[in-house]
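User: I'm putting together notes for a lab meeting next week and I want to include a structural view of one of the chains we've been expressing. I don't have a solved structure, so I'd like a prediction I can at least talk through. The sequence is below, exactly as it appears in our construct file.
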Amino acid sequence: MPRLLSTVLICALTAFHVPTECQAADPVRVACVGDSITEGVGTQNPKTDSYPAKLQEILGAGWNVQNFGVGGRTMLRKADPFDHHPALSSNPAIVIIALGTNDSKTPIWSGHKQEFVGDYVAMIKEFQALPSHPKVWACLPAPAFPGNWGITEDVIRDEVIPAIKQAAQMTGIGLIDLHTPLLENKALFPDTVHPNGEGAKRIAELVAAAIKTR
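Assistant: Thanks for the context. Below is the predicted structure for the 214-residue chain, given as structure tokens.
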């Protein structure tokens, strides 16, 4: 009997045990770690219009994208630190870190910027130590136009981004540039910080293009 026909018959007749070759592959778990931009603030409906939601649409059924974005959170642990333990517990295969925008606020950055790289490296290593051994990506923050709520584009461009690049280099992870490709898209950021639905979709496209190469 040909092997293909044999496999089909076994799959059809086995009631209580499904052979490995008959099982669908588990979805690739993606943890999106970030602040209000990841959460979806600025979009009409964060559940459907945030960048992680759009990323799920782009990637399709073979992927499971989870949104761990929380508004106002920083990478710096002495400011408003992101609690990454829920994301750790999701045992992801891929982690997308998009933090640093709120760190650019003058009182936060001027007081603690020397600790930013160390805090970033510590978070990366916690994810890398998971049993799932995820591939971790660091996002360069989207531009501010020029900013709001104390968030400042000059600090993002000239200080936060170089610090993120340094943390990525120290840990051997990949970078996703959300800054340069969006510099000419001010209209997608109506409040000068948060992307609208179209902006979130563009971010999702940039993230998808990177992680599909894994």
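A couple of points you could mention at the meeting. The two ends are 38 Å apart (CA to CA). Confidence is low (pLDDT under 50) at residues 1-23.

User: Perfect, that's what I needed.
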